[in-house]
Amino acid sequence: MSAQETGFTLLHDPLNNRGSAFTLAQRQQQGIEGLLPQAVDSLETQVARIHLQLDTLDSDLQKYLLLSDLQSRNQTLFFAVIMSDPATFMPLVYTPTVGEACQKFDHFYRAPRGVYLPITAKGRLKELLSHWPQKDIRFIVVTDGERILGLGDLGVNGMGIPVGKLSLYTAVAGVPPELTLPITLDVGTNNQQYLDDPLYLGLRQHRVRGAEYDAFIEEFVQAVQALYPKSCLQWEDFANINAVPILERYKDKICTYNDDIQGTAAVALAGIYGSLRISGQKLTEQRFLFMGAGSAGTGIAELISEAMVLEGLSIEEARARCYLFDVNGLLESTRTDLADFQKPFTHQHAPCKSFVDAIESIKPTAIIGVSTVPKLFNQQVIEAMSRINERPIIFPYSNPTSRSECTAEEAYRWSNGKAIFASGSPFPPVDFNGQKFVPGQGNNVYIFPAMGMAVLATESTRVTQAMFIVAAKAVAEQVTQASLDSGLIYPPQSQILDASLRTAAKIAAYIFDQGLARVAKPADIDAHIRGMAYKPMYA
Ligand code: NAD
After folding, report:
1. 3 — pLDDT class (breaks 50, 70, 90)
2. Where, by residue number, does a divalent metal cation bind (predicted)?
3. 289 has which bridge partners?
């Protein structure tokens, strides 16, 4: 390859490209001279240019696309931009914007990123995976696109989720981007709109189910283990009929977790711990009523129950404090339509189809919305909660914003300012009765990047439930009294990198104590993690 070809290739290699920041000496050395305008920019100038370009765009989707193109061109600059203002950029590279980006992924498709594994390639998954250029992969986020956020089956259009999520592992907790790999398993889609759309990019067939699907997953796990033995496999946005059994099958065999189930559970638990700092109550005094009994709802209920066990309850006593309500009403013992994973939360109670009636009967201290259905926490619901509780905990967690069970403004107004509120998608601050309330976002981003960094730093062999409880406590402990006074129960997103590194250090310490690490314990875990964390700068 000639010097010119090497330089040209370098300009198109997102991991090593510096664009206008290549120095004159580097340009001469690499054969780039003449391929760039003459000025040599600093990274700061390049970041300022991207900010300026973003300011000219009207819609968040356009900004998402600009950032996505940048990521394909120059990863260092991409991460420098995101990390320059995480609170602003996280909603652009992940929820809520990523929801719309996924829905239109095939229409706006530009550059490929990550690996696509179609079920038609069964028997050859290892070969396809081996085409990925990086050989030391530590973190994989994989989806089959069946339940993307609250938007349903988006088929291969769901690839925006693993891509966006892994960007956050890097931007929020410093997991080096070259160690990450986004993967989409294409087993078809049942979304007729996509099947009929000539621009759809995935397999044009209905979803494969049953034994064939399970064998495909097994082959995939084996291939990952063979090629990337130090990797952690994170399952993302699978429909709960698959998500729960897959996690059950692999959680004690390999280093793996499901963020929809366990990450969601941990961030909700962190929110509960934060809320209890406001109300001054104990976890074991709470009663929870969930709107939605899918993977998120049952995952949160289980982790809360396990956390209650650490505070002295038996697991049965703890689960008895968690009630779930789904599309067919309250989960109670006469129901015959329940899946195995819902049964631990099925209690003796009369059949009940009205959520307000369930509130009046169960008298929950907290309601958590994970139904994917907007507006279910209506005025009657919030008023009932406010009548029963001095400080009702109201968490509408369904994403994206259009699916939220209520808005922050509705929760504060209908509860007369009493609600302790957090939501899945962000809401702006609310002025009510002369007071300014700052709603927290129960965003899994407080948990999964930190978990990733802790697993990377320790080379942990497993990801356990107890690690998520440690993470939840670490997040809640970091909320300042000033934040709690404004109603904010999570650390501010503007300081998320620091918060994540602290959380990662707490999880890592636990991993070392439990003997799950594959590396020696460093003298100073915090310094060790900060030293490993990716920094967006040209080497
Ligand atoms: P899921 O499909 O597994 O479960 C949805 C549940 O809601 C089911 O039990 C269903 O019966 C129930 N439901 C549907 N319509 C209902 C209705 N009208 N009334 C009552 N219940 C109804 O989905 P999931 O994985 O559990 O996710 C649920 C939601 O939680 C999604 O919107 C997702 O984006 C959100 N979520 C948020 C976070 C977060 O913010 N941290 C994390 C994970 C998931």
Report:
1. very low
2. 236-237, 260
3. 323, 367
- Is the alpha carbon torsion for 393, 397, 400, 404 positive or negative? negative
Q: Of 163, 300, 185, which Cα lies nearest the Cα of 242?
A: 185
* Residues known to be catalytic: 94, 165
Instruction: Please state the rounded mean pLDDT for residues 240-260.
Output: 94
- CA separation for the pair 393, 387 (Å, rounded): 12
Residues 121/128, Cβ–Cβ less than 8 Å = yes
Binned at pLDDT 50, 70 and 90, residue 1 comes out as very low
pTM: 0.93
- Write down how long the chain is: 539
* Pair 392, 416: CB distance under 8 Å: no
Distance from the alpha carbon of residue 298 to the mean position of ligand 1, in angstroms: 10
For residue 239, the CA-to-ligand 1 centroid distance in Å is 10
In a 3-state reduction of DSSP, which class is residue 180? Answer: strand
Tens digits of per-residue pLDDT, 405-422?
A: 999 999 999 999 999 999
Domains and CATH numbers, the chain: 7-86 (1.20.1370.30), 97-254 (3.40.50.10380), 262-445 (3.40.50.720)
pLDDT tens column, 331-340: 999 999 999 9
CA atoms within 13 A on the CB side of 465: 18
Question: Which long-range contacts link 42-49 to residues 24+ away (Cβ below 8 Å)?
Answer: 43/76, 43/77, 43/80, 43/536, 43/537, 43/538, 46/19, 46/20, 46/21, 46/74, 46/77, 46/80, 47/77, 47/80, 47/81, 47/84
Residues with CB under 6 A from ligand 1: 147, 149-150, 240, 260, 264, 267, 291-297, 325-327, 370-373, 376, 397-399, 403, 424, 442-444
